[in-house]
Amino acid sequence: MARTASVPRDEVLRRMKKVFRENGYDGASMADLATRTGLAKAALYHHFPGGKESMAAAVLDDVSGWMKDNVLGPLAGPGLPREKLEHWVEALNEFYDGGQNACLIGVFSIGEAMIHFHGRLGASVKNLMTAVAQVLIEAGLPERVAQTRAEDAVIRIQGALVVGRALQDSRPFTRLLRRLPDDLLASA
Amino acid sequence: MARTASVPRDEVLRRMKKVFRENGYDGASMADLATRTGLAKAALYHHFPGGKESMAAAVLDDVSGWMKDNVLGPLAGPGLPREKLEHWVEALNEFYDGGQNACLIGVFSIGEAMIHFHGRLGASVKNLMTAVAQVLIEAGLPERVAQTRAEDAVIRIQGALVVGRALQDSRPFTRLLRRLPDDLLASA
DNA sequence: GTCTATAATAGGATAGAC
DNA sequence: GTCTATCCTATTATAGAC
Questions:
Q1: Does domain A59-185 have CATH number 1.10.357.10?
Q2: pLDDT in tens, B85-137
């Protein structure tokens, strides 16, 4: 499993993730993935014998790990609610590159990818909503309000990414992130 | 242009729209489109000589027409702001079948479709945001607030469709529609 | 581990009969 | 207007040398 080659596995995953985000699952061809990772198709199959599906799964695993380390962990960890939410939106801004990157949850929820991955996509959404709601409960909001707002936050993030792509304008996303902590913490 | 055949053009467009919504542009194959419309591939090419791209364009035209008749027109027409917004969410509920149908704006904003249609997608989003903002201005909200809320409404609709798909649960969308008019008209 | 070459299949598009 | 049959390219995937 040790990888000492020219393109480290992390970088391969990073580049594949970019291809999937831009083209979706059905729109991402092995030729794309090979060219953009800098590896020949056969080399990709060496690392991911399951083909495109296992490449997408590996990318999702990588994203899940990042989310656990940079979002779910910090949200569940110590700190003031507001500070944790501020840290969260900063992490989101980085992850989605200010709204320029699509989210794989949206992109993989149609076509062939939906068949393979809908379970994981739903779980990711649920985990995030639960983690955000928990922070809002810590902040003193009633559970029901916390859950409604957490759902609304995830909805808005996904929606802002879609609208931003359609308009080719990252401002809806950055505007959203700026007011999200205040909106979430407003008195009930 | 008169069409007297077994499957009328409107029905063909309806079925193609369904295929594109479920599979995206890159994920919708000519074989799918042929099977699901009930026409042979060659018959589809007879009606849409431009191939898949012009089929998607025709579907987008059809949707634009529906939106103009059922959303943009009514929003710009006579009536109380609240009644127009209530009518709007009813139309959305019908159009997205209670959240079960994806929106082509989101689905076509990646891959090959993004290249062909990003202009139209952005225009659709802008038109809707403008129409909603105008109703809010009629309702007495300051222009800046109206625009912010209209953007937020479109963002939430798109986001609720994505989250609903990922969770395979239409409730986020129906919940959103229920509170949308109140949220939009709340005092500034 | 990586490559070139190639097999096997699916995809978009067309020809030509009816 | 619709069909069957076909073409050509792209696509997924593998073989086998290095």
A1: yes
A2: 999 999 999 999 999 999 999 999 999 999 999 999 999 999 999 999 999 99
Supply the pTM of this predicted model. Answer: 0.97
Pull the structure tokens for residue B14: 């309806």
Q: Are B106 and A167 in contact (CB under 8 A)?
A: no
Length of chain B in residues, anyone? 188
In window 108-127 of B, residues with CB < 7 A from nucleic chain C are none
Chains A and B form CB pairs within 8 A to the count of 132
Whether chain A has a CB inside 8 Å of the CB on B167: the answer is yes
CB A105 within 8 A of CB B166: yes
Token pair of A183 as six digits:
């909106």
Q: Which residues of B113-128 are buried (b: 16+ CB within 10 A; e: fewer)?
A: bbebbbebbbebbebb
Q: Domain spanning B56-185 has what CATH number?
A: 1.10.357.10
C1'-nearest nucleotide to the CA of A45: D13
Three-class DSSP category at A102: coil
Decide: B180 and B85 in contact? Cβ < 8 Å. yes
Q: Is B26 on the interface with A (CB under 8 A)?
A: yes
The domain spans of chain A are 59-185
A183 in contact with chain B, both atoms CB, cutoff 8 A: no
Contacts of residue A27 in chain B, CB cutoff 8 Å?
24-27, 110-112
> CA separation (Å) from B155 to A93, A146, A178, B119, B177?
17, 20, 15, 18, 13
The answer to whether B106 contacts A162, with C-beta atoms less than 8 Å apart, is: yes
Confirm or reject contact between B81 and chain A (CB < 8 A).
Answer: no
Give residues with Cβ within 8 angstroms of A6, minimum separation 6. Answer: A38
